Structures are given as C-alpha cells and as structure tokens.
Amino acid sequence: MEQTNNDLDIAISGDGMIAAQGDGGKTYYTRDGRLSRNVDGNLVMTATGYPILDNAGAAIQIAEGINKIAIGNDGTISGDGQQIAKIGVYAFNPLD
C-alpha cells in the first residue's frame, strides 16, 4: 500500500474488489482505489470516471455542500460527520 495524501483514495487489504458502473450500466470490478468526486457529486474512479457503487449496488452520491469527507476502514463514507454510504467490497470464488 502506498500513501497518496488524497482523502478519497482507498486500499483493500486482503481479498475483495470494489464495483464501478461503466458504460451501458455494466458493472466492473477493480482494486484501483484512486477515487475522486466528479462535478455531479458522484464518487468515481479517477482513471475512468466510472461511478463507485455502494454495498447495495447504487452509485455513491455526495451531496453538494459536503466538504469534509472521510472513508473509514470498513468503507463507510461520512461527510461533515454524517454517514453517506458504504463502499461495496465484493469477493469472488476462483474458477476451478
């Protein structure tokens, strides 16, 4: 793991991937934790702009006016002290 000094960047310890919604609504799974907030307030993958999905499969929206955003070790996102969402972490069984 590498320190990035970006409060929105995350790293997954152990197995698991985060989900992002790509073009046409297709779900992609990644371990790329470089995240940012787009102009619409969505939490997105910095590299692709794909919205990050919460643990219920919905895009994570951070309301306008929220300034202090924190992501806990369990993936819970808080803004100005209020819980917003929880990043979904998905594990897969290897194929035989």
Radius of gyration of CA atoms, rounded to a whole number: 13 Å
Helix-strand pattern, N to C? EEEEEEEE
Report the β-strand fraction as a percent range. 25-35%
Oligomer: single chain
* Main beta sheet: 3 strands, antiparallel
Structural write-up:
- The chain has 96 residues and is mainly beta.
- Helices cover 0% and strands 30% of the residues.
- It has no helices and eight strands.
- The protein has strands at 17-21, 27-30, 35-37, 43-45, 69-71, 76-79, 82-86, 89-90.
- The strands form three sheets. The chain has a three-stranded antiparallel sheet, with no helix packed on it. A three-stranded antiparallel sheet has the order 5-6-7, with no helix packed on it.
- A hairpin with a 2-residue loop joins strand 6 and strand 7 (82-86).
- It starts with 16 loop residues before the first strand and ends in a 6-residue tail after the last strand.
Outline of the structure:
By secondary structure, the protein is an all-beta fold. Helices cover about 0% and strands about 30% of the residues.
Task: State the main characteristics.
96 residues, single chain, globular, three-stranded antiparallel sheet
How are the SSEs placed, and which strands pair?
Layout: E1 17-21, E2 27-30, E3 35-37, E4 43-45, E5 69-71, E6 76-79, E7 82-86, E8 89-90
